[in-house]
Structures are given as C-alpha cells and as structure tokens.
Amino acid sequence: MATIFETVQDILVDKYSKPKESITPESTLESLGLDSLDLIELMFEVEDAFNIRVPQEAGTALKAATVQDIVDNIQKMIEQGEATTPVGGSLPS
Amino acid sequence: MRRVVVTGLGVISPLGNDTDTLFSALLAGQSGVRIISGEGPRGPYTSIGAPVQFDPAQYFPPQQRTDQIDRVSQFCIAAAAMAVKDAGITFTDDNRGKAGVSLGTGMGSANTLEETFTQLLLRDPDRVKPLTVLKVMNNASAGHIAIQYGLAGPDLTYSCACSSSSVAIGEAFRQIRHGYADVMIAGGAEAELAFGFFKAWEAMHILAVPDRSNPSASCKPFSKNRNGLVLGEGAAIVVLEEMDAARRRGARVYGELAGYSSSNDYQHITKPSVEGQAQAMTLALADAGLSSADVDYVNAHGTATALNDATETRAIKQVFGDRAYKVPVSSTKSMHGHLLGGAGALEFLISMLAMHRKAVPPTAHLDIPDPECDLDYVPGLGRVDQDIRCVMSNSFAFGGTNAVLIARQPS
C-alpha cells in the first residue's frame, strides 16, 4: 500500500503537473509553486484520497511549509479520526 | 467636458467569435438559434437557444486552469483580449492607474451554480468543489481581466437583468467623462443555457415556442406571430478611451460614445412602460446633446414578446414623432437570441459596427406584419451603403431598469 507521502506525491503529479522527481518530503510548497488556493484544492483531493474530512476550523490543517508537514497533518487527522464526522453532516432521511 | 471614443471591439457570440463573422451573418439574416439538447437529472431534455461555439483552448494558454473559471468569465476574458488587441493599447505604469473594467451580467456563473447544487443535492451532500466561491462571484470576470492587464482603476460589475451590460458601458463612459478613468474595458456577458435556468425561464411562460418548420426562425421580433424570446449566450467587450488621448496615440476610432441614460419605469417588476422607455431615450439624447432627428439607426430591445415590441414601438413613436417611420429600427435578437445581461453590450457593439461599416442589420423572421408594430424594422436582409452618423441602442429590463446608449461618428 502506498505511503501517505507517495499518495500526496501522486496527487501533485496528477493534478498539478509537478514533475515527480521534484517532490521530496523536504520540498517547500513555495518551491513547488503552490499558492494558498492550490492548498485549498489540495485539501479537497486529500479528503478523497484518504477518505477523511479536513475540519473547518483547521483550514489551518494543511497550513504547511513543506510536503512533509502535509504528510504529518494527514497522519494526525487519520489517527484522530476527525474525518468520521463530516463537516456538513448528512442529509436528513 | 471630456469626450469618450470606442477604439476596440471583442465578441463571443452565437453568430461567431469575431466581429467580421458576426456582422456578415447579421447582414445575411442568418440565425444562431437552434434546438438544444442536454442532460437533466431525470434524463435528456430539449429546449431552444442560441449557443456559442467556444473552445477555451483557443483562448487560454495551456497552463491556465480554465476549470477554475466559469463559462461566463471565460467568454468575458476572451472577448476582452480581442477588444484590447483590436484597440492596440498597452497598459503600463503610465496609464494603469486610470484604466479600469466595467462589466454587466444578469445571472452570472449560472453553469457553476447548477453544477454545484447538482453535486450537493444529488450526489454528495457534504461538500462542493474547493474554489466554487471564486468561480461563482459575479465580479470574477472583472477581477480576472484587471489582473491580466494590470488595471488599477475602477473595477466594477453591474447587475440589472437585461440592461446590465448597457449600464456597465454607460457607467464606464461616465468614469471617463468625469475624469475618474482614461481607459475602460467595458461590456458584459451571459452564459445560462443550463437546465435549471431553462426551467426558470419556461416557468415565466416567456420563451418562444420552437418554430416547427424552422427552429432557427423561432424568435420573431415585431412580427404578428411573435411568441417569446430565445435565450442566447456570449460576451461583448468594448474599449473606451478619452478622445484626446486616443487621438494622441493614433488609435483607430469606431465612433464616439456620446450619450447614456439610466432610469426606471417604477411601475411593475416585468411589465414595460411606454413612458419609461420614451423617457430613457429622451434622456440619452439630451445627454448626447442630440435630437431624435440626428439618429440614423435604432438597435431595438426587441425581445419578441408580445408586450415589449408593441410598447417599444409606441415609445419610439413618442420620442421620434413622424421621423419614427423613417428611421430603421431592427432587433438583432432575432438572430443572436437574448443575451440577457450581455445583450446591451452585444447590441451596442453591433450598432458601432453598423456605423463603422455603413450597413444596417435586419430583423430576421419578420414575415407577418403586426398593425401595432408599423415601423421600418428592416425585415429580412441588411442594408449596405447607408450613411449612418448616429446610432441608438436600447436596453430595457425586468426590475424596470432602462438604459440607452447613443454613439455618433467621430467629429
């Protein structure tokens, strides 16, 4: 199974057309040319990839300087199971 | 008082995405109206409309994320690029401080709204795409254009239904006339040929019944058998400049934007008023320092609804008197459909082309005269070799907002 880093790397290659070899855990987002809007989109992709929900109050959850920071944040969210409570709740049945 | 000229034109329309193709089609009486098929939530649907043939790849560099820009903004950005190129103007630190954008739209990013609610209500109740706000906001187009050209002046978006882009051009004209700006990229767009919006218009019982023998002839302004409007989409953008500055840089001038009026019927949310429309035309003429005797062509609002066309005809008679029967009045909506928030800009652009190319576009599909509509509507084909010194473009809207633009040949 792919590691968190590998999955994030794949997203950056697929969705942002970044060369795979340019993405290392130490890569800064700035060096990859990712701005704040790219990060917002990245959160959306991350939610799908890991079946988690990034909580609203932690728009900061992916406030990160490096790819490793993102990986650490995802790891934390998976462990804390924050994802199990979707932000918007579900539709009334 | 500072004077304002039109130096650039750009268009994305149901009759083509450049001014030459558009104007040739208009003079030939060709129609961009057709049956539209789409996919609704419970299967395929059909309606009638005037769609644009538009491939974003032709207008945006490969690295541009067009999925982050709604169709309506894509139209605006593409038309603005054409207009700026046509004007031959460049923006530098010397002029960007007094260069701005003024756009109009009725429903804004309708396609993204529809996609968003479809996603939210039918597929995933939990979340929508991350940059939805930035696509949907009505000033997205104006923001993108200001960023693209580095324009630091007024950056405005007007929404008043079918007058939106006439108001946008008129207010841009005032920005220059009164010295707040020297150059304005002005116009507007609409892109709402989407399921929910068809349904909303259908519910108004105001859309034309498709002509069974010839769907492209479904919009019949001023005709006895007119039975409603046809929705169109597209964008039209003009570059407006202070006249002396434009002359100094040797710009090609299409005409002078000489007068504008903005007023309201204050009667009814949809029903037009003869007095209100006449007042709008009278105010615009006064603003231009001209009289109805000076006007050589009227591009009518001419929606092809029973009420509008009869009302507008009476209003023109009230303003023009006997001359009403001598001035060619046409509704080009018969061919490009009703661009709603983009209609005023497209029709002003067409009026500028009429003056510049000395040709009057026709009203298509006007085969059965209506005694209530008895002016010279230029039925059938356009007229060439016309000496057109002054044009009037009318826009009247739900909500009662009227806007009239008057342009004349540069003196």
Question: Mind explaining what this structure looks like?
Answer:
- The complex is a heterodimer of chains A (93) and B (411).
- Chain A is 45% helix and 0% strand.
- Chain A is mainly alpha-helical and 93 residues long.
- The longest helix of chain A has 15 residues.
- The termini of chain A are far apart.
- Chain B is 32% helix and 21% strand.
- In chain B, the strands form 3 sheets. A 10-stranded mixed β-sheet of chain B has the order 5-4-6-8-1-9-15-14-10-11, sandwiched between helices. A 3-stranded mixed β-sheet of chain B has the order 2-3-7, with no helix packed on it. Chain B has a two-stranded antiparallel sheet with strand order 12-13.
- In chain B, β10, α10 and β11 form a beta-alpha-beta unit.
- In chain B, α2 packs parallel to α5 and α9 packs across α10.
- Chain B is globular.
- The mean pLDDT of chain B is 97.
- The interface between A and B is small, with 13 and 7 residues.
Radius of gyration of chain A: 13 Å
Q: Biggest sheet of chain B: strands, sense, closure? A: 10 strands, mixed
Strand order of the largest sheet of chain B: 5-4-6-8-1-9-15-14-10-11
Helix content of chain A: 40-55%
List SSEs of chain B in N-to-C order. Answer: EHEEHEHHHEHEHEEHEHEHEHHEEEE
Q: What is the 3D form of chain A?
A: globular
First-last Cα distance of chain B: 15 Å
Helical content class of chain B: 25-40%
Number of helices of chain A: 3
Question: Helices, strands, pairings?
Answer:
The complex is a heterodimer of chains A (93) and B (411).
Chain A: H1 4-16, H2 36-50, H3 67-80
Helix pairs in contact in A: 1-2
Chain B: E1 4-12, H1 19-27, E2 34-40, E3 43-50, H2 71-87, E4 99-104, H3 110-123, H4 132-136, H5 140-149, E5 155-158, H6 164-177, E6 183-190, H7 195-203, E7 231-232, E8 234-242, H8 243-248, E9 255-264, H9 274-288, E10 297-299, H10 306-320, E11 329-330, H11 333-336, H12 343-357, E12 359-360, E13 383-384, E14 390-396, E15 401-408
Parallel strand pairs in B: 3-7, 4-5, 4-6, 10-11, 10-14
Antiparallel strand pairs in B: 1-8, 1-9, 2-3, 6-8, 9-15, 12-13, 14-15
